[in-house]
Amino acid sequence: MLRIEQPQAYRVFPQDEAGRAEIAVRVVGESDRMQARLVSGGEEVVPWTSLEPEKGKAWAGTLRAPMGGPYRLEVWGNGTARVSGLLVGDLWITAGQSNADGVGALSEAERPSRLVNAFYYDDRWGRAEEPLCWYNEATDPVHWGVGAAMREEAARNDRNFRVYGAGPAVAFGNALSRATGVPVGLIVCSHGGTSMDQWSPSLRGEGGKSLYGSLLRRVAAVGGRVRGCIWYQGESDTMVEDAKDYRAKMRDFVATLRRDLGNPEMPLAWVQIGKFYGGDPSWAWAWDLVQDQQVRMDISGELGRAAMVPAIDLELCDAIHVGSRGQRILGRRLAEVAYALMHGGELPWGPRPAGAKLEADGRTIRVRFTGRPLARASRVWGFTVEVEGRPVPLAGCRVDRKDPHTVVVRLAAPAQGETRLWYGQGFNPVVSLRDERGRPCPVFGPVTV
Question: I need a labelling partner for 167 at 20 to 30 A (CA). Which of 48, 51, 126, 284 fits?
């Protein structure tokens, strides 16, 4: 009887610059000789190749496979064995906190694809299917939700009773593979409720007891070469004491991750945090502050080969988590950004503020945007204005009839004093500004005008 030790079924091998990958094969079993090949459907992709004998009745060799799949590995010796679902394509890290995990209803989740597999927390490859995150099955203790003694029971209960967990990653993988024709492997690394301090690269020495150490170990376990990363995090940094430092921590995280992975140009597609149906109004400013730092990082380009998508327009399924429909939309947005970062395309994704000016009449603010022309609208929702720290009523807000890159905000009375403007201020703003393709504007502000 033959036993294939390598590769795991459903593994995704990262393609090299030539669009191929080396698939290491290791088989255990008694035989006079051993051969292996790759098959796709009924077509032979890599012909029968002899494996070399090793100690302990083992045989090993390498098959050089082209980008594509799914492939079936067939082994022949004193008997036969096979593993299926193998892909050659691109590996993407998916990381962040609970909105990266996903908390949407599984009944409405994105359907799996034959061209998108996932490396789950237990170091097992499988078809990428929601939910991707099973904390209590994780190899690394940083992800365990309960103590070691209770983990087996907790994992069993998760499998038996879980009805939520749909996130953006499967939709991202599906959309990206459709756009590029390249299979996708998702390296699942996210964990709910985690802050930038918990993701700090300074904790790498703790290995699997830290989020960053676990991420590095998992990337190394699948070959060490990734195409990019998708990231959705920030809610846990909106506590008052943490909000002001978010930008610096994010810059350090991204720069260090690229350096540690040996990929200084690694694409990063990431999400600006969205709404929150709750929270103490006295610290809503900290929520706004994190969102504003996020959009400023995107506009400045300080994260290098990176781009952001907003989530402010997406419906929630509870107080803070994007629902299944919104997660599918978000996954497609991230895929559009990832494609543009890799192959060239339209960035930024959606409108971005480029400045605001208070006219001489003291009651007209003209807000300029880059990107595609704005969708024509006689009424735009989402702008708020403060004068000398006090909210003031608006007389109207619309896209300029003559200049589709400008929004005209009219105050009910002339401003007298320091005037500041926001778009999407607060935990749960009503917002409507979009470009001509329907792409929403991210939250920003305050902007002094």
Answer: 284
Q: What is the CATH number of the domain that holds 255?
A: 3.40.50.1110
Give the residue from 311, 343, 375 where a domain finishes.
343
Contact 296, 243 (CB under 8 A): no
Backbone angles phi, psi at 327, to 5 degrees: -65, -35
**Nearest Cα to Cα of residue 15 among 88, 68, 64, 73:** 88
pLDDT digits (tens, 9 = 90+) for 153-183: 999 998 999 999 999 999 999 999 999 999 9
Residue closest to 122 by CA, chosen among 236, 223, 243, 214: 214
What is the value of pTM for the model shown?
A: 0.96
Condensed to tens digits (0 to 9), the pLDDT of residues 3-42 reads: 999 999 999 999 999 999 999 999 999 999 999 999 999 8
Cis, peptide link before residue 7, omega less than 30° from 0: yes
Query: How far is it, in rounded angstroms, from Cα 290 to Cα 308?
Result: 14
CB 187 within 8 A of CB 94: yes
Ramachandran class of 402: left when φ > 0, alpha when ψ lies in -120 to 50, beta otherwise: alpha
- Check whether residue 145 and residue 117 sit in a common domain: yes
Together in a domain, 330 and 239? yes
